[in-house]
Amino acid sequence: MGEAKRRKQTGAPSPRSPQGRKPLIILLAVVIAVVVVAGLYVATKPPAPGSDDLPVAAPNADEFPAMLDQFGVSVGPADAPVVVREFADFQCPACATFADASKRLKDEYVSEGKVRFVYFDLPLRQHPNAMPAAQAARCAGDQNQYWAMHDKLYAAQGEWSGSNDPAATFTRYASNLGLEERRFRRCMDTELHREAVEQSFQVAMQLRVASTPTVMVDNIPLTRPGWGQLSAVVERELAKANN
Question: What is the pLDDT of residues 145-168, one digit of tens each?
Fold first, then answer.
């Protein structure tokens, strides 16, 4: 008995062609893709400056003790209406991620005189190359290239993080930045800025800052350090300062 005649007599349905399922599979894939994209958009969409989800200062919180800024490295006008402070470790992966946000902050707000940015060194004990990296940035600062070295150290973190001789790598960076190599190397060999880095570390301990990156907009600690929350809080505080 032929297959078609058997199905007719028994009432069995005809098997679906694989080609008949293709439109359904494609439609399902499109729906899943739309849902994923929508979810990512909602998850990564920067909050509005007026959002209730943005962090605020703790009740009765004191102003940040501005006299401590001398122990960090700052850029921007002293009378900027908003001050952003970061406590960070050059060997910390999360700090390397935040470095993109701090660079954008300098480009879009500091350069316009709206924000002053202060970077505090907080080299964690578990990161042996964080201390020499912090000194390398300050040695570059002696030749007016602190922020260029700051950005390079974070951008190339994977290259030097596990090195047994990070100073050699930092010296190469200094040379590539056009610095006087012998002066830079002498600065590193004598640990000229070790005390300054340690003073910055003590500021963090005094303020009970224990994790990196810790980012504060005036006296408001960010809960999700990144460009979205950072820019939204900065915009909100700028609006307050201008009222």
Answer: 999 999 999 999 999 999 999 999
Closest-CA residue to 220 (of 52, 85, 46, 50): 85
Distances (CA, A) of 13 to 3, 16, 19, 23, 25: 11, 9, 17, 21, 21
Q: CA-CA distance, 132 to 186, in Å (whole number)?
A: 13
H or E stretch at 118: strand 115-121
Tokens linked to 228: 């979205």
From CA 101, how far away is CA 209, in angstroms rounded? Answer: 20
Report the distance separating Cα 124 and Cα 126, nearest Å: 6
Count Cβ neighbours within 10 Å for each residue of 43-78 and write b for 16 or more, e otherwise: eeeebebeeeebeeeeeeeeebeeebbebbbbbbee
Q: Which two tokens stand for residue 144?
A: 């007016």
Q: What is the pLDDT of residues 66-123, one digit of tens each?
A: 999 999 999 999 999 999 999 999 999 999 999 999 999 999 999 999 999 999 999 9
